[in-house]
Amino acid sequence: MNRSEFIIATAIILFAAFILGWFVGWLVNRFTRVTKAEIGELDKMAQSLHEAEESRDQAITYLQQREAEMTNQLAQTEAELRAAMDGLREARQEAEEMRTRLEGQSAS
């Protein structure tokens, strides 16, 4: 094999490799191409995700407000309970004092 034949054989092999590579690249591109329908579906999914995130944020805000209201109501109820218990304690003390006075008066 002389120099000319070697160059021609090498050129044919390189050309065949180029053609094979181009064909494989075309096949990969053909099978991995995103269609308009798939893009539309992705847009719908993105919109649904956005709406779900907004709903979640609204639910979290509502729950935080409700928790604050319930905490405030609990604090008010506990304050009212303490006031009622103090009033009851004072009423019992007064009743005990009156009972003691009546017993003292009835004994005299």
What does this structure look like?
This protein is mainly α and 108 residues long. The protein has two domains: 1-33; 38-108. The protein has helices at residues 3-32, 36-107.
The radius of gyration is 45 Å
Count of folded domains: 2
Shape, principal axes of CA atoms: rod-shaped
Span between N and C termini?
Answer: 148 Å
Number of helices: 2
Number of strands: 0
| pLDDT averaged residue by residue | 93
Largest sheet: none
Q: Helices and strands: which structural class?
A: mainly alpha
* Strand percentage: under 5%
Oligomer: single chain
Low-confidence stretches: none
Helix content: over 70%
What string gives the helices and strands in order?
A: HH
Key traits:
108 residues; mainly alpha; 2 domains
Layout of strands and helices, then pairs:
Blueprint: H1 3-32, H2 36-107
Short description:
This protein is an all-alpha fold and 108 residues long. It has helices spanning 3-32, 36-107. The N and C termini lie far apart (148 Å).
